[in-house]
Amino acid sequence: LRLVAVVRAILEGEKAAVLKRDHHLPLSFHRRQEELKFSLGLQRLQHRVREIQALRDEGPGQDGAVQSPTAPKELPPLILEAVKELEAAKQQVLKRIQIWKRQQQLAGNGTIFEENLAPLQKRCENLVEVYFQLQQQVMAASAELGSELLPRLLERLNEVLSSLVKR
């Protein structure tokens, strides 16, 4: 075990020296890291939408009484957080689209260019799917959101879809 610890320390030192010298990791590493970050953000967003649905479902009981008095108070902040996460995911997709466009431009100069749009299309489709789920939850919770917050949320949601379609 001691030998393994020594070898590990040496290898970590060499790795740090190489990274310090080169200042970057391979492009495939960054691309994979970006994909994982987007995937995690999307999963978190889907979980938020399910939380909103569950919170709305536990609202009024069968006899008209509210089972959870905190549910209407918790719903607006949860929806606002979900919209914020949706906008962050949109920014990641738009950044990736911009990178793809730039790579396409550089391909005219002879740079290697991967023309596969399937991963980018899958990202957009997943994001739009979550967008529609969130929009349904916002419309269903319109009574709890009030007349001031609802139009702002709908405007923010529409901006997300609009910017995705335009770019």
Automatic annotation (TrEMBL):
Domain called STAT transcription factor all-alpha: residue spans: 81-141
Transmembrane domains' residue ranges: none
Gene3D superfamilies: STAT transcription factor, all-alpha domain (1.20.1050.20)
Assigned keywords, A-Z: SH2 domain
Listed name of the protein: STAT6 protein
GO BP annotation list: signal transduction
Signal peptide bounds: none
Keyword S-adenosyl-L-methionine: no
One example GO MF annotation: DNA-binding transcription factor activity
Pfam families assigned: STAT_alpha
InterPro entries: STAT, STAT_TF_alpha, STAT_TF_CC
